[in-house]
Please model this.
Amino acid sequence: MIKGLFFDFDGVITMEKQGSPTIISYISKVTNIPYEMVNNAYCKHNHDLLYGSITHKDIWKQFCEDIGYSLDYQVLESAFMNITIDKKMLQYIKDRHDHYLIGMITDNKADRIKTIVSNTELKELFNVIIISADVHSRKSERKIFEEALKQSGLKAEECIFIDNTASNLKIPSEMGFTTIYFDDEKRDYSSLYCF
Model:
């Protein structure tokens, strides 16, 4: 019996496929610095940010030096919010909120997700949020999914995990999760409506 629904964030809950480009494009627009330059300065830190070995505050001075522009840290928090939440997916979650534990499992920066959740209605909808930077593990590893089960108190066989990247479904499927691939371009919700 299914008791928990776990969602990826970028590309599933948001219309944007990935998170980093939303940050980079916002900063590029605000500073009028070419996207590629901002991308190069930001992405060299991406792996460490996703694993939680560093935070945005740790890299901010270096990042500003690399783009040649002294930015207030507040700009980054605004960049975190440069997303479009999928209203249909949000309604799907709302419709099931009273019947299932609702969780998120995401390869992401902890400060980004916490900023977004605390400033949107997502904070009312998610019972468990597992972020790679918090648990120092990504979806290519078991640990992040084990943490989701630990915090939810559920067994893998009682959970569904929905992601827009097929390779992210391999580990949870092996663990016993029911997995659903959500095509972020087609936005085909019909695959979800069996639950």
Remarks:
- The chain has a mean pLDDT of 96.
- Residues 4-16+85-192 form a domain with the Rossmann fold fold (CATH 3.40.50.1000).
- The longest helix spans residues 20-31.
